[in-house]
Amino acid sequence: MEGGVGIESHLFMDLILDLLPILVKMLVGFFVVLTTTAYLTLAERKFSAYMQDRIGPNRVGPFGLLQPLADGVKFIFKEDVVPNHVHKVFYIAAPALMLVPALLGYVVIPFGDSIELFGRTITLQIADVDIGILYILAIGGLSVYGLFMAGWASNNKYSLLGGLRASAQMVSYELTLGLSVVGALLVYGTANLRQIVLHQTEYWTLFGSIQVPHWGIFLQPLGFVLFLISAFAESNRLPFDLPEAENELVGGYHTEYGSMKFAMFFMGEYTGMITISALTVTFFFGGWHIPWIEHAGLTHNVVAALGVLAFLAKTACFLFLFIWVRWTLPRFRYDQLMSLSWKGVFPAALLNVFGTALCLYVLRRPM
Amino acid sequence: MIVRKPQLSLTQKLYLPEILRGLMITMRHFLRRKSVTYEYPEKAKPVPANFRGLHRLIQRPTGKERCVACELCLTACPANCISMVATDPNDPNVEKFPLRYEIDTLRCIYCGFCEEACPCDAIELTPHYEQASSRREDFVHAKSRLLENNQFVPEGERISRVKTNETYLRV
């Protein structure tokens, strides 16, 4: 009997040790993403200020670094108004439906290689799912419900128009987003994001000595451009922010929202940006991989730690690109948006899939 | 009117090169970091040399006002904001001086006519413009306060910024 208890407690310890890294990864991931979201709003305001020759927020803390905190406090303490003319259930559910998918998306993204701690191998990814990319596209597809529900439940013509635009735009660009990665999926031969990154850590050798990493950008340049365009539209960022369109639709789908409910839409948008940037890095820029670091002779754990930093830096570059583009380009007209999607990006994505498939067939044909 | 659509070149039709051009413009501004913002309460915005702000009464070297109570400012004032009571100072060098001299800055339109009318450069508009109060009385400047307003002018310029007729500078 005694021995049995011993084995059981041993198993229990094993279970704890298996669960602990997962819990830590979840908490850290959640914390990092939410903090980044908060500071992304500050970055947006600061960078836009610099691009417009202004200074930007600098009142709260040094260089305005505590501004997100002040914003958060303000949002939380604001009166939570629910207008009389709205459909209450959907009106309250919509911001949650926007934020939750955004917060679920990033869990399958590998942010680093594995590290060895106390004889255990811990993969630096919250959930290693075989259908990672499908998961992200599916979860991303859910956020359209939040937007549309908000627009419909607000019972207001501006919100309704915003919601209609949101649904049409997101359905169109989800298609192109999905199609633009199909080419990359054909090349990598897997939908597992970790495997995709590992595939990109290999090298081509050019001219006998120059090693070029297998990054997706070299394999799928057209796919990358199409993916990026769709990513901008999918995350409702300028030049595709028609669901909001503040100068024609007041605030679009979130016209009737205030206080924390508005903040949830806001956070949803920025978290979506983080996820899509991280996905771009994973697909086309080698994820955590630093080129040629294998030759530096560092231990596995150090390489993995540097890889996490590299992943964060690459993602930050794309986040900057999102901000940069927002403060450069004006908004598309609605018909232009639709014609770009259906007449431009969609056929190009199909062509990309076809071309990739043809190339792969020719290259991998048994000789 | 017939509006003709501009003929776009291939690079313009492709749109992406033009986007890159636009991005370069914003990046140039981003890197240049030349801000047009005036951080006002911390750093005052520089005012032009002839800025017309709060009035001051210029002092003689003795500390008394230079004003001889000729009432020309009062006459020139289009807003009627200057009021004055003149009297004899019992001073052989000074014929007349203002016993009371008040400017209601709530009426004043800061036109600077008083400054122009004054034959002895006794009144001047300083560059000072930060006048705020919650009481109306604070905007009516009596003679003593008008003399104190000299503090808003740097030491070297206390006498006058205008070239003065020597006759009035004896005392």
Structure description:
The complex is a heterodimer of chains A (367) and B (171). In chain A, 67% of the residues lie in helices and 4% in strands. Chain A contains twelve helices and four strands. The longest helix of chain A has 50 residues, at 2-51. Chain A is globular. With 171 residues, chain B is α+β, with helices and mostly antiparallel strands. Helix content of chain B is 22%, strand content 13%. Chain B has a three-stranded antiparallel beta sheet. The mean pLDDT of chain B is 82. Chain A binds chain B through residues 47, 50-55, 225, 324-325, 327-329, and chain B through 16, 19, 22-23, 25-27, 29-30, 32-37, 39.
Search tags:
heterodimer; A: 367 residues; mainly alpha; two-stranded antiparallel sheet; two-stranded antiparallel ribbon; 67% helix; B: alpha+beta; 3-stranded antiparallel beta sheet; 5 helices
Instruction: Spell the H/E element sequence of chain A.
Output: HHHEEHHHEEHHHHHH
Which architecture of the domain at 55-157 in chain B does the CATH hierarchy give at level 2?
2-Layer Sandwich
The rounded Rg of chain A comes to 23 Å
Number of helices of chain A: 12
Summarize the main sheet of chain A: 2 strands, antiparallel
Largest interface: A-B, 13 and 16 residues
List the secondary-structure elements of chain B in sequence, H or E.
HHEHEEHEEH
Q: Structural class of chain B, please? A: alpha+beta
What topology does this entry show?
The complex is a heterodimer of chains A (367) and B (171).
Chain A: H1 2-51, H2 67-77, H3 88-105, E1 114-117, E2 120-123, H4 132-153, H5 157-188, H6 193-200, E3 203-206, E4 210-213, H7 216-219, H8 221-234, H9 246-249, H10 259-284, H11 300-326, H12 334-364
Antiparallel strand pairs in A: 1-2, 3-4
Chain B: H1 10-14, H2 16-32, E1 55-57, H3 72-76, E2 82-87, E3 97-104, H4 113-117, E4 123-125, E5 140-141, H5 143-148
Antiparallel strand pairs in B: 1-4, 2-3, 3-5
